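Hi L.,

As promised, NitT/TauT family transport system ATP-binding protein:
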Amino acid sequence: KPLVCVRHVSKQFANGTLAVRDVNLHLGAGEFISLLGPSGCGKSTLLRMIAGLGAPSTGTIEWPTTSHDASGEPDRDLGFVFQDPTLMPWATALGNVMMPLTLKGVRKSQAQERAAEMLALVGLKGFEKSYPRELSGGMRMRVSIARGLVLRPKILLMDEPFAALDEITRHRLNDDLLELWWKERFTAVFVTHSVFESVYLSKRIVVMAARPGRVMADLDVDAPYPRDD
Ligand code: ADP
Ligand code: ADP
């Protein structure tokens, strides 16, 4: 059973912009999917609707395998990573990663332990006490990914997370993200406008058109690079 079913979803903003038009998409458990398309084609809008941030104008987004509350809202078990890491400047790396746990009421000692574990997983062991301003752009993004995964969500939605980083940092983060995905087995949805990045990262690429917010192709691709898995 798919984790998320997007059925005939369209989104028209109040100003008349038709950002997403009749998209159909099933996200399977454990997949690494890239959502590829030029700037302005509706990738973010679609990703945000999957996250429950903004409702579709028409169509439905179903979570067939999750429980629903009394009003029919699904319990969306997801993490979200934005292009801007949006860390709290007054909190340490550890404090930032702990935040989702703290909001859930997890005991402090347990939250600290789990957050430290996540920081180690993204390669930031030893940086627990560093503040965001003391970290590089790539490291801040690592903190943001650790925060996105700290509740062990079924699905991690990423909106052009590495677009603002230099090429080398971006390449390293791509590799480390893949390794993390192999280890942690979450479903990954990765928004990018880079063909290179989508092919490098994923076996399935959903291609959106420049206009007007349609899915043009849903491709299975073989990684062009030898991987030792
Ligand atoms: P992408 O992520 O592919 O760059 P977006 O989903 O951000 O594309 O935007 C798709 C289209 O919707 C663009 O034309 C954008 O200007 C427009 N758009 C995005 N958000 C809003 C909004 N809140 N109000 C009106 N138009 C919007
Ligand atoms: P954009 O559309 O963001 O400019 P491109 O796909 O055109 O992205 O890539 C820009 C440059 O960055 C290219 O030289 C490409 O080889 C390099 N690049 C993109 N993604 C990666 C990656 N994951 N690892 C290494 N280099 C990359």
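The radius of gyration is 18 Å.

Thanks again for sending the construct details.

K.
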